[in-house]
Amino acid sequence: MKFKSYYWAIIAAAVVVLLALALPIFIFRGNDSSDPHAGVDTTARQSEPVDYTPQIEAFQDLIKANPSDTAALAGLGDVYMQSGRYADANDMYLKAVAINPNDSIFYARLGDSEFALGMVDVALRDLQKGLAINPKDQEILLYIGSIYAQTGKPDDAKKNWQQAYDIDPSTRYAHVAKQLISEQDNPSSAGNAPALP
Q1: Using alpha carbons only, how large is the chain's radius of gyration in Å?
Q2: Burial tier of 127 (Cβ tally within 10 Å: 0-12, 13-18, 19+)
Q3: What is the per-residue burial (b if ≥16 Cβ within 10 Å, else e) of 139-157?
Q4: Distances in whole angstroms, Cα of residue 82 to Cα of each of 30, 113, 147
Q5: Do 142 and 164 meet the contact criterion of CB atoms below 8 Å apart?
Q6: Helices 120-133 and 104-116: angle between axes, nearest 10 degrees
C-alpha cells in the first residue's frame, strides 16, 4: 500500500503542530524556579501608571454623538472609577439614572461611587432604590453588604451577602458573597478574598 502525497503533508503538518505545542514546555522546563514569572521583567509594567485617556476620549465621543446613551455614560463612569476620579464617575452615573431611572445597574454603580466619595447614607439610599427595582440584583446586595461591613455592621453585612448568595448560588456574585461570608466567619482567611465585581 502506497501513501499518497497528501497523507505525507497531513503527517508533516501534525508533526509541526506537535512541535509548536511542545517547544515552550522544553524551553521553560530548564527553569527550576517556582516563580512562574522568573526571568520576566515585570517592573516596567508595575511602575507605569495606566493611561485611561483613550477610553475616556472614546466614551466622550459616544456621549457627544448621543447624550442619552446610558451605556456610554456608565462606561465612562466605570473608567473614571478605575482611575480614581470618583466625583466624575458619580456625575456620569447620575446622568445615566436621570435618563433611565428604571435600571438597577445604574443605581449599583451610583451607590458605589457615592460610597467612594464618603457619602455612606446617600450610597445606601440609592442602592436601596436599585434593589426596589430589582430585588434579585446580587451586585447591589454585595455593595450594601460591603458598606455595612466597612461601617461596623457585620450582621447586616452578612445578611445581605447571604441574600445575594441565596438568589443564585451559581453566579460569580454568589461566589464572592460566599467568600465574604467565610472571611467574616473566619478572619484569618481574609487575604483570599476576590475583588468585588
Answers
A1: 24
A2: buried
A3: bbbbbbbbbbbeeeeeeeb
A4: 39, 11, 19
A5: yes
A6: 170
> Would you state the cell numbers that stand for residue 120, as one nine-digit string?
455612606
**For residue 37, what pLDDT is reported?**
42
Angle between helices 70-82 and 104-116 (to 10 degrees): 30
Exposure class string for 86-115: b at 16+ Cβ within 10 A, else e: bebbbbbbbbbbeeeeebbbbbbbbbbbbb
How many whole angstroms separate alpha carbon 171 and alpha carbon 34?
33
In angstroms, the CA 124 to CA 143 distance is 9
pLDDT band at 192 (very low <50, low <70, confident <90, very high): very low
User: Per-residue pLDDT averaged across 115-141, rounded?
Assistant: 97
Q: Is it the case that residue 138 has pLDDT exceeding 50?
A: yes
